[in-house]
Design goal:
homodimer, 323 residues, alpha/beta, 7-stranded parallel β-sheet, 3-stranded antiparallel β-sheet, 13 helices
């Protein structure tokens, strides 16, 4: 047993990841949690810089998200969108009236030379969030989805085309020149780190862009804490989004084992949903420890329970590696 | 009597001018009205290009303005502003959720290289407005208010400082390099032009910026139609805004005669409110014909009646100059 409170770094995309991030935020001391957000699905739209995963994390942790959809803001209205339509503007990406303030103010501050890290930190503090939310990089990285009909910017694939095109691969434009955002190295350093948690996000479009930032994956490998991923695949299906469809198109099994295999050497532990009980041996055969539990997070209590279980699992892995 | 319908060019600022512009739009054939809008009070705010007078004219003529305030949109909501405040953004300039679409889409199109004339024309057509609304120029011109404490960008003076600073003068940044917008020369050319109407707008901050565009005032002087201004001062007071206060600070009488004197040689006719009956001789002594009528436009019927009277007045002036 450690005598101090666990300290954790979480990697997250949007909706699914943000659920566990909220659980972690309600379990850990605020100063002991740092969330690294995917920015590969950020994009420029209507002259604004939109950062869907940072915003979903921020709204979720601030308690102002739309709890029905998991993305966007609660109590949202759509007058801007209706007026855009009347003016002939693009309306395929839904921007609520409340949400829009985030994009307008962030874009203004980016244009004035501020960093995404600084802006994200200021927004979360103004919204009363204590744990740190860090973009993976201040350098723009843009996920491009390769399809048989050519490359598609991520949001065009994801929102405009509703994930219909067949995926043949991904590239992360700008990643080669990106650096991990300030604060990431510090968060991952130190003997007191208890866990690196890969939230139940899409490995290809939410987590791989984070790994594509040069140096970041090495920092994870070097971290003095076990790396534990929570499967985004439950019972062979993605709870949210195109993960399973994408895996099939990429020629992978669309199951939790394939997710564990995708993360490979990085993993010390993998959290499988109880409905995937048959897969635990296959994951263990990869040299990865397994925690089997209910990973579906419907209620706040579910999120907190899963967060506690993941942290306890990581603690055990940490103790055994030190033992 | 002319046998054809009158053709008219109107010069206008925001609220007061837009009322008469609406009256003219409901009186003339759509193809016979061109409105030249002041862009001197345009400004860049939150990364957006905001054109208050163009927008007031557009919303008014489209029947979607806030009829209480005269500016902004009817049925407006303020979720964006409330969210901006929570994020620590600037909130001194009110941007409604509906209104915001205009600024975001215009800014996007300007950034992509489109002209303000083109965008304004497209917006008005999409909103069902048939008469042309032209910005005075596609080149940005920015009204700067000179005060004892230094220069203030117009909207800082007008909205943020609520017109409190003493005005010592104006300058129109960018005007020297500006050109009249495409369509203005054509609208002012031709023997069939019946009237140039200077709407009841503030002469210093709504009309003078238009005159500051090199060549534009000469086009008005050369036009084959009488130039008729409607006084924005009624009974020694501005119906709206800081006109009277401004005139006092500039050392002028704050009366309708001073407005007529300000426009000077340009004027053929001046429309005085009946409550300023004592001023008509003073205006006539400037060599300017006078129409005395009720110029307060509360109802749509008021706007239409005044528009008809102004056009009939201009027609008489045109006939007498030809006679």
């Amino acid at each position: 047993m450690t005598t101090q409170a666990p300290r954790c770094v979480a990697l997250s995309g949007g909706v699914g990841g943000a659920k566990l991030a909220l659980g972690l935020a309600r379990t850990l001391l605020p100063e002991d949690l740092t969330i690294i957000a995917n920015t590969g699905d950020d994009f420029e739209h209507l002259g604004l810089t939109i950062c869907p995963d940072i915003d979903t994390l921020t709204y979720t942790l601030a308690g102002i998200s739309n709890t029905e959809t998991g993305w966007g803001r609660g109590g949202e209205t759509w007058q801007f969108m209706a007026s855009m339509e009347a003016l002939g503007g693009e309306t395929w990406f839904q921007l609520g009236d409340r949400d829009l303030a985030t994009h307008v103010e962030r874009s203004r501050r980016l244009a004035s030379g501020e960093t995404l890290t600084g802006i994200t930190g200021d927004f979360r503090q103004r919204l009363g969030i204590e744990p740190k939310i860090l973009p993976m990089s201040d350098t723009p990285v843009r996920t491009i989805v390769e399809t048989p009909d050519g490359p598609l910017p991520f949001q065009h694939y994801f929102v405009r085309e509703q994930c219909a095109p067949v995926v043949t691969g991904f590239r992360f434009d700008g990643a080669a020149d990106a650096h991990p955002a300030p604060g990431i190295a510090e968060a991952l350093a130190g003997d007191d780190l208890s866990a690196v948690v890969i939230c139940p996000s899409n490995p290809f479009i939410s987590i791989d862009p984070i790994f594509a930032v040069p140096g970041l994956r090495d920092m994870l490998t070097a971290a003095k804490a076990p790396v534990v991923a929570v499967s985004p695949i439950v019972g062979g299906k993605a709870l949210k989004g195109p993960t399973a469809k994408m895996m099939t198109e990429l020629g992978l099994d669309s199951d939790a084992v394939a997710v564990a295999r995708h993360y490979g050497d990085l993993l010390d532990g993998f959290v499988l949903d109880s409905s995937d009980a048959g897969s635990d041996d296959a994951v263990r055969s990869l040299g990865v420890d397994v925690l089997m539990t209910d990973t579906i997070m419907k209620t706040l209590a579910d999120k907190e329970r899963l967060a506690r279980e993941v942290l306890t699992f990581a603690e055990k892995l940490g103790n055994s590696s030190h033992g």
